[in-house]
Amino acid sequence: MSAELQTTSVLDRTDDFGAIYEQNYNLLVRTAIKHYHISELDAEALAHEVFLAYFLKAHEVINLRAWLVSAVCNAAKAFLRRRARYVALPEESVELPDPSLARVGEAWPDQLAGREAFECVTARCQIALRLRYLEGYSVPEVAAELNTSQKYAQKLISRCLQQARRRYRRRDGE
To answer: Which long-range contacts (CB under 8 A, 24 or more apart) does 58-63 make?
Structure first.
């Protein structure tokens, strides 16, 4: 017998729910639009969420209208908080790709070959070549860093380039 009472109360609640929905739907949608500046489509979705919550908690609600209005206000605030995290940037603030990086992919094979050749030379040659070609030092600056004469620094750089070329070719089997 208690099962019969439960099914009738659920059916009664469903009938009441339809009437409550019809009476309050427009109020909830207008509240979300007017007070929170939410689009009509989003306001309708929020109203449906509120009615679903009401349907699940109808037995706990004392003041129906106050509960529905506060529920739609809370749902609208939560919606705005979620949406604030995903707002698109204005078009003028979107960064354009750096044109200097447009052909980076084409240079990779050469860079990899250069690094492999660099590994084939002695430590002193690596320092001289790094200073001259990677860091852009002039020959007099390389000489100052290596504590040698300019003439020896130029000779060292040339000899290291030849050594790298020879060892890299030998390593590749050419």
So the answer is: 58/13, 58/16, 58/17
